[in-house]
Design a protein that fits this description.
- One of its GO terms (molecular function) is structural constituent of ribosome.
- Pfam families: KOW, ribosomal_L24.
- The chain has strands at about 10, 20-25, 30-35, 40-45, 55-60, 65, 70, 75-80, 80-85, 95-100.
- By secondary structure, it is mostly beta strands.
- The protein has a single domain (about 10-100), classed as SH3 type barrels, CATH 2.30.30.
- The two termini are about 15 Å apart.
Length: about 110
């Protein structure tokens, strides 16, 4: 999975199509992500000591990673993500993620 926590993504399918937001959490084994403000669901909560009133809360639910694309803020466009090796000053190489459309390196 090429999308990580903290990445800006654009939703490319579903009811929230076109939304640009940040990934709050990633689940690589499931191939799903939680995106801020996307796929909001209502959850009925029982009263507990932490939440004595209980009630209905709204929270983000997981969406499939195939429904989002990495968003390049510099180029203002969504792009696929690739990997390449970049040479450091001391001659060693580091594996980095980059946007395939613009070639910009993603800061991790």
């Amino acid at each position: 999975m090429r999308i990580k926590k903290g990445d800006k993504v654009k939703v490319i399918a579903g009811a929230y199509k076109g939304t640009v937001a940040e990934v709050k959490q990633a689940f690589p084994r499931e191939g799903k992500v939680i995106v801020e403000g996307v796929n909001m669901v209502k959850k009925h909560m029982k009263p507990t000591q932490a939440n004595p009133d209980g009630g209905i809360i709204e929270k983000e639910a997981k969406i499939d990673v195939s429904n989002v694309m990495a968003y390049d803020e510099k180029a203002k466009t969504a792009s696929r993500v690739g990997y390449k090796f970049v040479e450091n000053k001391d001659g060693s190489q580091t594996k980095v993620r980059y946007y395939k459309k613009s070639g910009n390196i993603i800061k991790d």
